[in-house]
Q: What sequence folds into this?
């Protein structure tokens, strides 16, 4: 066994990339789903200026600057791809008292959490510290890109009414489908970035593998799949950059 600090670090990252559906009771999921509201589009998704690349985002040093930059990049791609505004505002290290009540349970449970009540991402101090201490400085933007590209994949699922993502009481198989589809969609965005010269595919996949290896605790396998399964999902998206390869409902 690793020392206690290492176990805590693994458990912290084990919560990364979880949705409300992964962290709440079925009753809470039902309430949050029916409280779903529209999210305003970012400047990138409304066409006000060219979106930044991951390479450009990596030049930032402050975490909020990195995540906001990545937000604009991912939003611009998916808004164009699905022909409707797609955006996920990111809140970094926000005190729980300032989080909407319907989102608080998930924010407490997971260091990175997409709230279905407002389709916004909350990144906690835990995740910021883990990435700061366990990911090389040169690749930290990639780590946040892995997280945000996956989470925006869930926003795409909700916006397009992917059937499996709208089930209030999903089976384990449905949850694995939803999570691995979001992994695949993250790969689609990464391939698009790479095609424009703004992302190194090998670096993206390497950091994703690092995070997923830590995520691959026994409890996660039932709801998310094994590390090889999730990497295979990312690879499907990376291969051609085509949402059809992810079985996204609008493109299937």
A:
């Amino acid at each position: 066994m690793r020392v206690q600090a290492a176990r805590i670090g693994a458990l912290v990252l084990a919560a990364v990339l979880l949705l409300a559906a992964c962290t709440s009771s079925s009753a809470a999921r039902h309430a949050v789903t029916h409280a779903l509201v529209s999210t305003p589009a970012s400047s990138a998704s409304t066409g006000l200026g060219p979106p930044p690349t991951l390479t450009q985002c990596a030049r930032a040093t402050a975490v909020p600057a990195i995540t906001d930059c990545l937000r604009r990049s991912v939003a611009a791609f998916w808004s164009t791809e699905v022909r409707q505004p797609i955006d996920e505002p990111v809140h970094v290290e926000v005190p729980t008292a300032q989080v909407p009540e319907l989102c608080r349970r998930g924010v407490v449970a997971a260091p990175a959490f997409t709230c279905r009540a407002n389709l916004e991402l909350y990144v906690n101090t835990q995740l910021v510290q883990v990435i700061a201490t366990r990911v090389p400085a040169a690749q930290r933007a990639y780590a946040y890109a892995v997280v945000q590209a996956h989470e925006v994949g869930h926003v795409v699922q909700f916006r397009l009414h992917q059937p499996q993502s709208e089930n209030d009481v999903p089976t384990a198989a449905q949850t694995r489908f939803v999570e691995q589809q979001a992994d695949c969609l993250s790969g689609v965005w990464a391939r698009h970035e790479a095609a424009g010269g703004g992302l190194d595919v090998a670096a993206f996949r390497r950091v994703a593998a690092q995070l997923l290896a830590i995520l691959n605790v026994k409890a996660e396998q039932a709801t998310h799949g094994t590390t090889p399964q999730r990497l295979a999902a990312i690879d499907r998206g990376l291969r051609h950059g085509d949402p059809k390869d992810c079985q996204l409902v609008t493109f299937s």
Q: What stands out?
A: Confidence is low (pLDDT under 50) at residues 1-47. Residues 154 and 182 are 6 Å apart (CA to CA). The chain has one domain: 4-246. Residues 4-246 form one domain.
